[in-house]
Write a structure and sequence with these properties.
Radius of gyration: 23 Å
Number of helices: 14
Strand order of the largest sheet: 5-2-1-6-11-8-12
Number of strands: 17
Helix content: 25-40%
Largest sheet: 7 strands, mixed
Number of domains: 2
Structural class: alpha/beta
């Protein structure tokens, strides 16, 4: 194709070959509290022996010929990691975390709408002790009741349907409708699981966490304060932490909201019924007890590593999470993370490092069947590019003539769009994408040198 180099991006080695960590350290064994927890479990929570006592599922994994020993991460023993999932996705998305991101975590629970074994770990049913009246009389619980009575054999094809997001979320998806009810009950579930944790870190099955970055971030905060850290979202006048981005509660914050909710179950069931987002409901409950969200972007993000702008303010920050990560993405990111931290000089992983060593090597002048998410087109007043249908050369020439243009894209209808930011993007049949590679490399060269990591601090 005239004017467009036929060079395609390929996955290749990103860093030096992986160096197996020589000094084998071990974590303290998991301790999930006593059999007589300090806090009684109210209706809407779950108490199980697996959650209340130490068990093999809460130990870190040993080293093997193909996986390294678990490094000792200072402060990890103070953290309970909570992965929230559901029956329609758990078997697909959770196993990859158990062999990667959760493998070396000494204290972890997986909360769900269905109790089952996944890779040797027992999930906790957050609705186990919830009012049976609500479950029987609210259509949001139809999926839960079918699964509880019939297991996975009771699932319907529609339960797995991935409905596109609307202004009110995936309102036609059974699993999504059920998910909003999990947020407040799971607060009690995790408190019962480990009441003495200093931090409670909540992620979802498509969230990728970077633990050294989290612990570095938390080291700047006092766990004795009532803290609610997360990626700021807003519905109306309600500000809350986006669940998929991951969020953190200190022990005093979790206890405060759990105690309040336990005394007002009916009121908060009604509030949950009226809202469409469970993370918003939790934010409302925390506000009720006087705990406001600490805005924590860019440590936490709504985007995947392939769709997140790494430049600007983010560049020198260590990200804690990426969202919308597929199991393949999790594997790829984990492999990269292991390579990075095998160098003892690397204490944290910055957006800069991820872009330079993971994203940049996958970029190319031109990629077919690829969507780089460039979205500035003829629907905007400032657009002066070719009319639809345009050729790829016309779109590329328009981008080249705009000094702010980094990427261009041509969809199946020949519509040209451009972007001033640099994203790797995702596969998309019929889409064509290109990059101004000399500008990309110039942007890297001109970016901040990051003499030290930048943190969102108190």
């Amino acid at each position: 194709m005239s004017g467009i180099p036929a060079r395609y991006g390929r996955w290749g080695p990103i860093l030096a070959p992986f160096i197996v960590i020589a000094l084998i350290l071990h974590f303290l064994s998991g301790n999930f509290g006593s059999n007589s927890p300090k806090h009684p479990v109210p209706t809407g929570t779950q108490a199980t022996a697996a959650a209340a006592t130490p068990s093999a599922e809460n130990q870190t994994a040993p080293a093997t010929e193909t996986t390294p020993a678990c490094p000792q991460l200072k402060g990890m023993d103070d953290v309970l990691v909570v992965l929230k999932t559901g029956i329609t996705e758990s078997q697909e998305k959770v196993p990859v975390h158990l062999r990667t991101t959760l493998r070396c975590i000494p204290h972890k629970v997986v909360v769900s709408d269905f109790e089952e074994d996944i890779g040797g770990l027992r999930t906790l049913d957050v609705f186990h002790n919830m009012s049976e009246s609500i479950k029987q009389n609210n259509e949001d619980f139809a999926l839960y009741l079918r699964a509880r009575d019939g297991g996975r054999d009771a699932l319907l094809a529609q339960d797995h349907t991935k409905v596109a997001n609307s202004a009110s979320g995936m309102s036609d998806n059974p699993g999504w409708k059920l998910d909003k009810w999990k947020f407040l009950p799971m607060i009690h579930t995790v408190r019962h699981a480990r009441p003495d944790a200093r931090w409670y870190v909540f992620i979802e099955a498509d969230t990728y966490p970077i633990w050294p970055n989290l612990l570095g971030w938390l080291s700047h905060w006092n766990p004795e304060d009532k803290l609610y850290l997360g990626n700021q979202m807003q519905i109306g006048d309600i500000t809350f932490a986006h669940g998929g981005s991951g969020f953190v509660l200190s022990n005093p914050a979790l206890n405060a909201v759990a105690d309040m909710h336990a005394k007002n179950l009916k009121e908060w069931d009604q509030i949950t019924e009226e809202q469409w987002a469970g993370d918003c409901v939790l934010g409302m409950a925390l506000t009720k007890v006087g705990i406001d969200l600490t805005w924590s972007s860019p440590h936490v993000t709504t985007q995947s590593v392939w769709e997140q702008d790494a430049f600007g303010d983010a560049w020198c920050h260590p990200p804690f999470t990426f969202h919308h990560m597929t199991p393949a993405d999790v594997d790829r990111m984990w492999e990269f993370e292991q390579q990075w931290f095998s160098n003892e000089k690397h204490k944290h992983l910055l957006y800069r490092d991820i872009f330079r060593h993971l994203v940049r090597p996958t970029l190319a002048d031109y990629l077919n069947n690829w969507d780089n998410k460039a979205d500035r087109g003829d629907d905007q007043d400032e657009y002066e590019g070719p009319e639809t249908p345009a050729s790829l050369v016309e779109c590329a020439d328009y981008c080249a003539g705009d000094t702010n243009c980094m990427q261009y894209r041509l969809d199946g209808n020949g519509r040209c769009t451009t972007s001033p930011i640099i994203l790797r993007g995702t596969p998309e049949p019929g889409m064509k994408s290109g990059n101004m590679m000399w500008r990309v490399d110039a942007a890297i060269e001109n970016a901040a040198k990051c003499k030290k990591a930048h943190w969102v601090r108190p």
